């Protein structure tokens, strides 16, 4: 890292010494003993402009306090069947680690039904791990997915503002025609920094992904051509990283229940929920969403499916 960057980091640290105690506490929970790491991420997200990065981090710390993010892993979703339903609708899981020790996060973007519902790596590899790689499975992506785009863009916005530069690379696999067509249209609108992180792979991406991870860390939908993103497998606990039976989700759920017993004064509210404030979309994000909407409608029109979309709008209710 250059001397200029080191100086900017020092300026940033100096500014953070002036925040109030509550912000200092949530900042400590964020960096887990590595205070420079989040500063560098926020600086990169704002092109090393210390004033803009400072504002972005302060906004993030306020968001964490307002939404009680520090205690979010002490709020279990019960009963277990309800948690299982969430897992089935939000297909996200940890399939393993890359050869560099980065967690491999698998996301079933095509089959997720969002409208229905890293300290471990540091210890394991003996070095601070602050990034991950994400593998997005587009199996099952359909024109009718337009009604999910508004929520997906909102989630992405929260991620960008509060967890910037956490993802080293996005690998997109099992790509159907509809995604290819939309990506060609949207790609010119994406920031160059983000665009460099996105790699669209052929087929299930197995051969390319094996260059950066072992076979055991491949998401189940990448292990053979045509495997798809099945929610069920012959050995769910081993193969399907989306399943509640997978080791990662079992450990996570047990950890959340343990934290609840340590911090709660009484039993968790049955079928309770967590509410998180989300930001208004910025002009760039709105433009991208509108472009995707337009492309979806164009493709639907080509395939005679206009009526099936029922006039869905990305930014509408």
TrEMBL record:
InterPro entries: CRAL-TRIO_dom, CRAL-TRIO_dom_sf, CRAL/TRIO_N_dom, CRAL/TRIO_N_dom_sf
Any Pfam family hit: CRAL_TRIO
Domain named CRAL-TRIO: residues: 120-219
Protein name in UniProt: Phosphatidylinositol/phosphatidylcholine transfer protein SFH9-like isoform X2
Superkingdom field: Eukaryota
Lineage: Eukaryota, Viridiplantae, Streptophyta, Embryophyta, Tracheophyta
């Amino acid at each position: 890292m250059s001397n200029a960057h080191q100086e900017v980091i020092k300026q940033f640290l100096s500014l953070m010494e002036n925040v109030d105690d509550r912000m200092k506490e949530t900042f400590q929970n964020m960096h887990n003993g590595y205070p420079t790491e989040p500063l560098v991420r926020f600086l990169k997200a704002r092109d090393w402009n210390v004033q803009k990065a400072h504002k972005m981090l302060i906004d993030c710390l306020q968001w964490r306090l307002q939404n009680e993010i520090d205690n979010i892993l002490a709020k279990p979703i019960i009963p277990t069947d309800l948690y299982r339903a969430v897992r089935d609708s939000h297909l996200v899981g940890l399939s393993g680690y890359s050869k560099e020790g980065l967690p491999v996060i698998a996301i079933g973007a095509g089959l997720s039904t969002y409208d229905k519902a890293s300290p471990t790596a540091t210890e394991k590899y003996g070095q601070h791990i602050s990034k991950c790689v994400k593998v997005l499975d587009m199996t099952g992506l359909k024109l009718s997915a337009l009604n999910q785009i508004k929520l997906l863009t909102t989630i992405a916005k929260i991620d960008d503002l509060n967890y910037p530069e956490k993802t080293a690379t996005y690998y997109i696999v099992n790509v159907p025609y509809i995604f290819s067509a939309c990506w060609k249209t949207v790609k010119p609108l994406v920031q160059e920094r983000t665009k460099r992180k996105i790699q669209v792979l052929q087929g299930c991406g197995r051969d390319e992904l094996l260059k950066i991870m072992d076979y055991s860390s491949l998401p189940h939908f990448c292990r053979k051509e045509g495997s798809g993103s099945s929610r069920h497998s012959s050995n769910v606990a081993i193969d399907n990283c989306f399943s509640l039976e997978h080791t990662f989700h079992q450990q996570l759920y047990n950890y959340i229940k343990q934290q609840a017993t340590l911090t709660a004064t009484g039993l968790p509210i049955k079928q309770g929920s967590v509410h998180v404030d989300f930001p208004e979309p910025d002009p760039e994000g709105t433009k991208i969403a509108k472009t995707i909407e337009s492309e979806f409608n164009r493709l639907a029109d080509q395939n005679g499916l206009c009526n099936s979309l029922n006039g869905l709008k990305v930014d509408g209710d």
